[in-house]
Amino acid sequence: MKPLHVCLLGCGAVARLHSRVARRLRGAVALSYASRDGERAEAYRRRYRGRHAFDSYEAACGHPDIDVVFICTPPGLHVEHAELAARSGKALVIEKPAARSVAELDTIRQTVAQHGVLAAVAENYRFRRSSSRSAARDATRPAAGGPMRS
Questions:
Q1: Any idea of the CA torsion for 86, 103, 99, 74, to the nearest 10 degrees?
Q2: Alpha helices in the chain (DSSP H)
Q3: Cβ neighbours of residue 4 closer than 8 Å, sequence gap 6 or more
Q4: Cα(149)–Cα(98) distance, rounded to whole angstroms?
Q5: Which residues pair with 99 in a beta bridge?
Q6: Rounded distance, CA 39 to CA 61, Å?
Q7: How many CB atoms lie within 10 A of CB 128?
Q8: Which residues pair with residue 122 across a beta bridge?
Q9: In what order do the strands lie in the sheet with 68-71?
Q10: What pTM did the predictor assign?
Q11: pLDDT, tens digit, for every residue of 37-80?
């Protein structure tokens, strides 16, 4: 079976983390890297045995080998990069936080729907039992300002 070809936009700590995890997938995923700094993208490609290194996000999103774009750039760039990936017809994964506001998240949602691509937020604790219990416990606690009122 052909591996899923994922290109990580942004070559920082988050891309490093995901690259190490992807190694465990044993050939199911092929990685490429994109950065505004082509040398940095190439260094990641070499270090993690990736397929391609791109010196622009536009080149990465436009490349026919790429199936999924993983947005690992700072949150202030997520809307721009999600729009770029969606316009290019690429499925996308957005590192959390996906957006800085509800309005930005709505822009991403509309863009994804308009272009008919798949999108997901990289949330690794959503279904962890301990996180679910903590969220439920926090939701039922009184606010810091006093007891809950109806």
A1: 80
A2: 13-23, 38-47, 57-62, 78-87, 102-115, 129-140
A3: 28, 29, 30, 67, 68
A4: 32
A5: none
A6: 18
A7: 10
A8: 95
A9: 53-54, 29-34, 4-9, 68-71, 91-95, 119-122
A10: 0.81
A11: 999 999 999 999 999 999 999 999 999 999 999 999 999 999 99
